[in-house]
Design goal:
Radius of gyration: 23 Å
Largest sheet: 6 strands, antiparallel
CATH superfamily of the largest domain: Zn-dependent exopeptidases
Structural class: alpha+beta
Oligomer: single chain
Number of domains: 2
Number of helices: 11
Strand order of the largest sheet: 1-2-5-6-8-7
Shape: globular
CATH class of the largest domain: Alpha Beta
Amino acid sequence: MNQEKRNSLFKFISYSAFTSTSLFLGPTDLAKGASLLGIRIWPAEEYTRVTLETDEILEIKHQLILDPNRLVVDIKGLELNSSIKEIVAKVQKNDPYIASVRVGQYQPKVVRLVFDLKEEITPQLFSLDPVGAYKNRFVFDLYPRTPPDPMATFLSKNMGNTEEDDVIAQITKNRLGQTNSNQLPETFVATPKSTKRRFSRMITIAIDPGHGGEDPGAIGSTGVMEKDIVLSISKKLKDIFDDEADFRTLLTRDADYFVPLGVRVQKARQVKADLFISIHADAYLLPHAKGASIFALSQQGASTTAARWMANKENASDLIGGLNIKTKDAEVAKLLLDLSTTAQIKDSLKLGSSIIQEISGFASLHSKKVEQASFAVLKAPDIPSILVETAFISNPEEELKLMNETFQFQLSQAVYKGVGNFLLKNPPTQRQG
């Protein structure tokens, strides 16, 4: 049964005190001895995702009860066991939406989960077909009933980084000062925040750590996951930019949770980002593949076979991470169409070339020029966008480098300096509004 047919089986029933939703999956005769393979909770500011993975297709019902706010989930075909009880321990105290979870045997072969909620939420329940190492997954996305304004949230996190500020925040530790000064370029170097800005206005950088949550990305021979490596590098890159008066930054994800590709682009556009930089540490078919690569969007096909392979692999993140196709609004869907302009791609190629020049000073390159392919995450029509493959996690030698804090910092420096040199040659124009 495909995803579309599965989701068409949703039935919504409204009551005065609560709303109830039933999800009927598979044949009426449910398999005996079904097992719960995993329970995962991914908290984030935007939403909390709860994933239940089973070896059989089961019947699930849920109801949202108000005052106090609770989400009640009944799973037919399961018996209460220690693995199901583990969900209680998985709830983090800082989860923005789940206060606690209670588990019990509601009826024979029916396990009941009760999620005590911190605020009123809008749950979205959907199922995912088996893919890769995952079996049948049932996903609950818990969104706040009143979502925060993305621009207001972004600005609140960047207090002190607005054009109107005459007094810059107290100087923070300059991370670039920890390295050998001989490594710093003459064209663009970091200086304390109290210095005069180089540009006519604040530059907003969207930094996109690839993968996350249900989508681990590539996995190295030691078990290290791409999603963890790129989040660490992205946070270092954010710190470097935030130490400069000219920049303010957005992380499309700042913790271990899944963000659909189109939503990553949408987040960048919502805060009017000037540049979009997606950070990855991918794998390839051959373990000896090595070196960093920079990718820009292509409207006419991939520049190499490897570029096409990587784009197809990255574009599969939505399938692996678990995209709820019912929640894709018109704007996100539209962004995934080929709307990018020639000017965006031209600037992306310039930006990528500037970063390649910096990376080449200390690390090997997989390609000495910017490659192009149809990456969905690069399709913002009005934001120069690049995807940085920092190294190959499938190469044991590069995997060890990627796990090294110093190497991560060097990569972050290179990206930062490449961005700065690009902006010096291509200064941002004033924006209206």
